[in-house]
Structures are given as C-alpha cells and as structure tokens.
Write a structure and sequence with these properties.
By secondary structure, the protein is α/β, with parallel strands linked by helices. It folds into 4 domains: about 90 residues, Rossmann fold (3-Layer(aba) Sandwich); about 60 residues, no CATH class; about 180 residues, 3-Layer(aba) Sandwich (Rossmann fold), CATH 3.40.50; about 50 residues, Alpha-Beta Plaits (2-Layer Sandwich). It is about 45% helix and about 20% strand. It has a 6-stranded mixed sheet, with helices on both faces.
Length: about 425
C-alpha cells in the first residue's frame, strides 16, 4: 500500500501539483455512491477544510456519480486515477499523433461523465422547425459532438496506423532485427535507450517522461545493424482508453523480433510492476515468454528481462541475492543504465538471442536469378558475395525456417 501511495504522489507531482497530504484507506466494500465509507468521507472532508485544499486525487477509478457526490461532500474538485493519467499524457504528448491519441482517450473518458458536467439538462435546443419535435437536449448535443470528433480522430489515426504499417513492412523486408523496450513507467527505459544508442532522448526521474515512440539504429556483436524502439511506460491500472488509443504506437512491440522488458530491480514492488506490464502486453496480444526465452506464441517476440538500476541496490546482502538470482534465471541481465554496469553483457545476450537458430549457408545462384538474390538480401544477412562469369557465390545467414522457404520457392541452391 505504501508503494502504491508513493506512486500516486509521483503521478500528481508529474503534472506539477503541490501535494499537501497523502492518505491511504482500505476499502473493504466499495460504496456505489461514494466508493469510501461515510466515516472515511468525513475524515477526508475535515482534512480538506483544515488546509483549504482545492483538488483531491482519488487513486482509483470513480464512476461519474461517485465523483459528483465526493465533490459535493468535500467542496473540492475531484479527479480519479484515470483522469490524472490522462492529464499527464495530455501535457506530455509532443507529436501530432500523440496528441490525437490522448484527445481520443480523453473524449472517450469524458463522454460518460457529461451527466456530471451539465446541470442544465432541462434546457432544450430548439429543432430546425421543419423537423418538429422538442429538439435535442444539451447533453445529447454534446455527446453527439464528442462522437463526431472521436470518429474524425479515429480516421486520422487509421491513416497513421496504415503509414506505420508500411514503414514496418519495409523494415521487415530488410534484414535488420527490431528490438522494443517495454517496462513500467520510470523503470529507466529511456536511460537505457540513450546508453545503447548514444541518443539524447529525454530521461528523467519522473513518471511518463516518454510518451512518443523513438527509434534508433544500434550495432550488436555480430549484428551490424538493429533498430531499437523506446515506448511509453506502463503503469498499474492503465486506463483502458489509453491502451485502445495508443494501440497503433504499441503495435511496434508486436512486430519486434526481441522485447527488452526493463525492470526497476531496486523498487520494492518490482514483481507487481512486472505483472502489470505482462498484463498490458497480454491485452495487446504480445504474450509473455517462457523460461527459455522462446515466444509463447509461434509468431511472438522473444524477451530478455533487464534488471535495471543495479546501482541503487546498495545493501551487500540484497545485492548478492539479486546477482545470484539473476545468474540462476535464463535471459535475465542485471544492469545499471546510468553507470553502464552490465550493458556489455546485455548487448551480448541480445545478439545471442537474435541469432539463435540462425545458420550460415553457402549458396550458388545463376546470374539470371535476381529474384532469389533479392529474397536472400531481404530475409537474411548476406555475409559474402562473389560474382563470376555466369553465377553468384554467396554466404548468407538465415533461420532454418527461412532457408526452407527459400528452397521451396527457388529450389535447392546449395
């Protein structure tokens, strides 16, 4: 409970709120009218009156009725966890796509809360006269406008998705593996991204410092080029509106060859954060992997767990236990993205897993077989290439499944 309270405080601080106090209550049974019990509501009201507090953040989802009743009881503005996260995303979105995604999520959230926003529902907007009837109520008109705006945004995002799909298809035709960084917010993804790429992506000790995806080229042992993608951080109880709105962005994770699941191993709730990340990945369709690092689904990416912030584990016994545990588990690497500790080991593990099962094949193609040569360039790594008068001799690294596809399509060329 203490860690969850601290996270709620961090979310409030992330948009510049002045946190006067933070209170934790155990809710044994949710009250339909107020979520909290009558005694708890009264205790909070006294605390609000004491310091003339203007805004109360409830670290839980509230129904419109609960939100309205609490505002009346406390005489203060009330927002819930979903509303707070939407505010953060709205403030941080830097690209046109990010702003569209946030606006769509916010409209979806707000559409169900118009009953709280309007106190003049009895007021009627007149019809056009020739249609007859009483016309639209204010709330009906506002809901219609929200639906129309959401439809326009979805059309724009569909175009973004198609464009992103074309870019992804081009990347998949190239022999460059794609690596996606995922993890709980503030786990250190952007710091690790900067360490691996030398880029200057914003990296701050702040929740949701990164919203818009960033991609850079990196080199790994034995792999000249790979694409590394930084993504938005996850959080427990991530609003479903945001998961839906950011699906186009997070689809980069689904098409990755390798996922780096970055964990803050120094955080007391690291295991719970891991479960939250896997829940979101499951909702997106990127299933978690088994112990051997192989994807749980046939087409899913493999996963390396990156236990980050090793520099913050200062207790010798605790550090020794973490090192021993990391050594026992496969596809786990202990690093400090800040200091660089373990990053070389991580790069080696990434290269090993990306190249796992790939073999080197010596092939000879007729000079006229340009389509076969193009296929090999698109689906494998051409290591050496020599031309003679009527043939091409080449060494290529391919996954066995891709070599089988090549043979079925072009015949035996070994």
């Amino acid at each position: 409970m203490a860690a969850r309270l601290e996270e709620a405080r961090g979310l409030a601080l992330a948009i510049g709120l002045d946190v006067v106090d933070a209170l934790a209550y155990r809710v044994r049974q949710s009250r339909p009218a107020t979520l909290l019990g009558a005694g708890q509501v009264e205790q909070v009201a006294e605390r609000i009156a004491q310091d003339a507090i203007e805004l109360v953040v409830v670290d839980n989802s509230l129904t419109p009725v609960q939100q309205s009743n609490l505002e009346k009881a406390w005489n203060a503005k009330v927002i819930d966890r979903t509303g707070l996260i939407l505010e953060i995303f709205g403030e941080r979105a830097a690209t046109a796509e990010g702003r569209l995604q946030v606006e769509l999520a916010h409209l979806d959230y707000q559409a169900g809360r118009l009953v709280r926003s309007w106190t003049h529902l009895e007021r009627q907007r007149g019809g056009f006269g020739f249609l007859g009837g009483p016309g639209e109520t204010q709330i009906e008109a506002d809901r219609r406008m929200i639906r129309d705006r959401m439809a326009r945004i979805r059309r724009e995002l569909d175009q973004v998705t198609r464009t992103r799909g074309l870019h992804r298809a081009r990347r998949q035709r190239a022999p460059w593996p794609v690596i996606a960084l995922v993890g709980y917010t503030n786990a250190g993804k952007s710091t690790l991204f900067n360490r691996l790429t030398g880029a200057g992506v914003l990296a701050q000790d702040m929740l949701f410092a990164t919203l818009d995806p960033t991609m850079r080229q990196i080199s790994l042992p034995g792999i000249d080029k790979a694409i590394l993608s930084d993504t938005v951080g996850f959080v427990s109880d991530l609003p479903h509106q945001l998961i839906a709105a950011f699906r186009a962005t997070l689809e980069e994770v689904l098409s990755a060859d390798l996922i780096l699941h970055v964990r803050d191993i120094a955080h007391p709730d690291s295991e719970a954060q891991k479960a939250d990340v896997l829940d979101v990945l499951g909702e997106l369709g990127a299933l978690p992997t088994g112990e051997d690092g192989e994807a749980a689904s046939m087409h899913g990416p493999a996963v390396i767990e990156v236990w980050n912030k090793a520099d913050l584990v200062t207790d010798p016994d605790h550090r020794a236990a973490i090192i021993a545990r990391a050594g026992r588990e496969e596809h786990v690497v202990l690093v400090s993205a800040l200091s660089g500790e373990g990053v070389t080991d991580l790069q080696r593990a990434m290269a090993d897993l990306l190249g796992k099962g790939h073999r080197r094949y010596e092939l000879r193609l007729a000079a006229s077989e340009g389509a076969a040569l193009a296929w090999l360039h698109a689906h494998g790594e051409v290591l050496a290439l020599e031309h003679d008068e009527d043939a091409v001799q080449l060494s290529v690294r391919l996954a066995p499944a891709d070599f089988d596809r090549f043979q079925r399509q072009f015949g035996t060329q070994v």
